[in-house]
C-alpha cells in the first residue's frame, strides 16, 4: 500500500501529506509518557548499550549529504543544548576531500534516508578506520549503513519514492531530537526543558496536520512565483537548515534557482541582490532569534525587497512592514521542533511550482533517489 500513490497525483505530494502518519510511526514506542513516579522520557533501544560511551565522547560528529545533512543541521542546536558534548557537522564528501580529523574518542552519526549513499558510506569506512563509535540513522532496514555501523536508530518513516526527500527529512529531525533527549537524560537541570519537548513531540503530528492546510495558499503563491528566475530563503538559528532545505526542494524539483541564506550573513554579501523584483522568503517564527529576524525584514523592506514572511500564527501584522508583503502563518511549537513545521509550506511550494512549470515531480532530471556512485 505504501508504494502506490493512493488518491495523489505524485509520490512527492503523497509523501508530503503523509507526514503526520510517518512522524507518528517514527515516535511509536519511543516516547514514555511518565506518571507521578516516573519522569517523561525517550527510549531508543538501538543506543541503549552505547549511551555511556556517547556521553563521554570528545565530539558528536554528524555526517550526511543533501537533505540528510540539512536534517542534522536542523537538530544541531538541540543536540548542543542537551548533550553537553561539542557537536560538529560534516558533509560526507567534504570530510573525505579534507581527510578531516575523526578521533577514536568521537561518536560519528551517519544520517542517510537510503543508507546506501556512496559518499556517506565512504565517510563511514573512514570513521571506522579511525576508531570512532559509528551510529547509523537511516530509513532502510538492512541497508549498508545500518549493517556497517556499531549501532543505530531507524527513522521508520516508511518507503520514500519521490527523489525529493520530504517525509524522511522531518522524521530524521525528530529522531535526532530524540537522540538529544536520550543523551541529556542524566542531567537533572534540563528535566523541565526535556519534558516540554516530549510534550511537543506527542502533539507534533497534529500540528503538521494543521500546517498541511496551507496547501491551497502555497499553490496560490506558486502561481505568483511560477515565472521567476530565482528565490531566496533567509533563516537563522533553528531555521537556518529550513532555509537550506526549502531552497534545495525548490531547485531540485521545480528547476528554479534558489538559495538558502543564513540571515546573519545578509549584510556580508547577499543584500546586494535585493531589489523590487527578487522574491525573498524570510522565516521569522517565534524563537530566540525573532527580534533579529524582525530587523532583517525591516532592512530588506528598506531595499524594496519582495517579501514573503513565514511567521507564527497571529504574528502576520506584527512582522509585515507593508501591504506588499505576503505572510505564511504557521502553528507555533517548541522552538527545536519548529523546523519540522516550517519546512512543510516550502515542500508544498516546491511541489506546486514544479507542477505549474510542467517538470517531472518524482524524477527530476539528472538526479537519482540514491547516489551510489562518487
Ligand atoms: C533530497 O531531496 C535529495 N534528493 C538528496 O539531497 C539526498 O538527500 C541525498 O542524496 C542524500 O541521500 P540519503 O539520505 O539517501 O543518503
Could you estimate the helical fraction of the residues in percent? 40-55%
Helical run tally: 14
Largest sheet: 5 strands, parallel
- Euclidean distance between termini CA atoms: 33 Å
Quaternary state reads single chain
Please describe what this structure looks like.
This protein has about 375 residues and is an alpha/beta fold. The chain has 14 helices and twelve strands. It has a five-stranded parallel beta sheet with strand order 4-3-5-6-7, sandwiched between helices. A five-stranded parallel beta sheet has the order 9-8-10-11-12, with helices on both faces. Strands 1-2 form a two-stranded antiparallel sheet. Helix 2 packs antiparallel against helix 9 and helix 10 crosses helix 14. The longest helix has 21 residues. The radius of gyration is 20 Å and the shape is globular. The two termini are about 35 Å apart. The model has no long low-confidence stretch (mean pLDDT about 95). The protein binds 2-deoxy-2-amino glucitol-6-phosphate (AGP). The site of 2-deoxy-2-amino glucitol-6-phosphate (AGP) has 16 residues, from helix 4. This is glutamine--fructose-6-phosphate transaminase (isomerizing).
Amino acid at each position: 500500500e505504501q508504494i502506490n500513490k493512493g488518491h495523489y497525483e505524485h509520490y512527492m505530494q503523497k509523501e508530503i501529506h503523509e507526514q503526520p502518519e510517518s512522524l507518528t510511526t517514527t515516535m511509536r514506542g519511543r516516547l514514555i509518557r511518565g506518571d507521578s513516579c516516573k519522569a517523561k522520557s525517550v527510549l531508543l533501544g538501538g543506543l541503549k548499550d552505547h549511551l555511556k560511551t556517547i556521553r563521554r565522547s570528545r565530539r558528536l560528529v554528524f555526517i550526511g549529504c543533501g537533505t540528510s545533512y540539512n536534517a542534522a543541521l536542523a537538530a544541531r542546536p538541540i543536540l548542543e543544548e542537551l548533550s553537553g558534548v561539542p557537536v560538529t557537522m560534516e558533509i560526507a564528501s567534504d570530510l573525505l576531500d579534507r581527510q578531516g580529523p575523526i578521533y577514536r574518542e568521537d561518536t560519528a552519526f551517519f544520517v542517510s534516508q537510503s543508507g546506501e549513499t556512496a559518499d556517506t558510506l565512504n565517510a563511514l569506512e573512514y570513521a571506522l578506520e579511525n576508531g570512532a563509535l559509528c551510529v547509523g540513522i537511516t530509513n532502510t532496514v538492512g541497508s549498508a549503513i545500518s549493517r556497517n555501523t556499531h549501532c543505530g536508530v531507524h527513522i521508520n518513516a516508511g518507503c520514500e519514492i519521490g527523489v525529493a526527500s520530504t517525509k524522511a527529512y522531518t522524521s530524521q529531525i525528530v529522531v535526532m531530537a530524540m537522540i538529544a533527549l536520550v543523551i541529556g537524560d542524566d542531567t537533572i537541570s534540563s528535566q523541565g526543558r526535556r519534558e516540554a519537548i516530549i510534550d511537543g513531540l506527542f502533539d507534533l503530528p497534529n500540528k503538521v496536520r494543521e500546517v498541511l492546510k496551507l496547501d491551497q495558499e502555497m499553490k496560490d503563491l506558486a502561481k505568483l512565483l511560477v515565472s521567476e528566475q530565482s528565490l531566496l530563503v533567509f533563516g537563522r538559528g533553528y531555521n537556518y537548515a529550513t532555509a537550506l532545505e526549502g531552497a534545495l526542494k525548490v531547485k531540485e524539483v521545480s528547476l528554479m534557482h534558489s538559495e538558502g541564506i543564513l540571515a546573519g550573513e545578509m549584510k556580508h554579501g547577499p543584500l546586494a541582490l535585493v531589489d523590487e523584483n527578487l522574491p525573498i522568503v524570510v522565516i521569522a517564527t517565534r524563537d530566540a532569534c525573532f527580534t533579529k529576524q524582525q530587523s532583517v525584514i525591516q532592512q530588506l523592506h528598506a531595499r524594496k525587497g519582495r517579501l514573503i514572511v513565514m511567521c507564527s500564527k497571529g504574528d502576520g501584522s506584527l512582522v509585515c512592514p507593508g501591504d506588499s508583503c505576503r505572510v505564511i502563518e504557521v502553528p507555533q511549537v517548541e522552538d527545536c521542533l519548529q523546523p519540522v513545521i516550517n519546512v512543510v509550506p516550502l515542500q508544498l511550494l516546491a511541489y506546486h511550482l514544479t507542477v505549474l512549470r510542467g517538470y517531472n515531480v518524482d524524477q527530476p532530471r539528472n538526479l537519482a533517489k540514491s547516489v551510489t556512485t562518487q
